[in-house]
Amino acid sequence: MPEITDFKDLINWQKGMDLAEKCYFLTKLFPRDELYGIVQQIRRSTVSIPANIAEGYGRRTTGDYIRFLNIAQGSINELETCLILSQRVGLSTKKDTLSIISLIREESRMIIALIKNLNYKTKLSK
Known about the structure:
The chain is an all-alpha fold and about 130 residues long. Helices cover about 75% and strands about 0% of the residues. The chain has 4 helices and no strands. The chain has helices at about 10-25, 40-55, 60-90, 95-125. Helix 1 runs antiparallel to helix 2 and helix 3 packs antiparallel against helix 4 (about 95-125). The longest helix is centred in the last third of the chain and has 31 residues, at about 95-125. The protein is elongated. The chain starts with 10 loop residues before the first helix and ends with a helix. The mean pLDDT is about 95.
């Protein structure tokens, strides 16, 4: 297993960046009048995922790291909600939405696993 020396080495962060990229490409297809509506909301929530993973990794305590991972998890839920709504109102196709939601759920599982692992290590060190 490669050594993690930087937040960019984290698989969670890398997957979050892939997810953000896919959301940016998807929202380029949305109507221009949604630029300050759901497009902005999708982009902000998707960027928040890897940004909070990176910020948490850079914090000095495990508790802070976990807090930022929980914020990233909240952004995942927000993003999924926005994508479901975009499909329901006809801004995106079911195929496009489901492929991204599949990535969202994978990222969510990975973040939850990391939080559990960090909590376990914290309990062991006490």
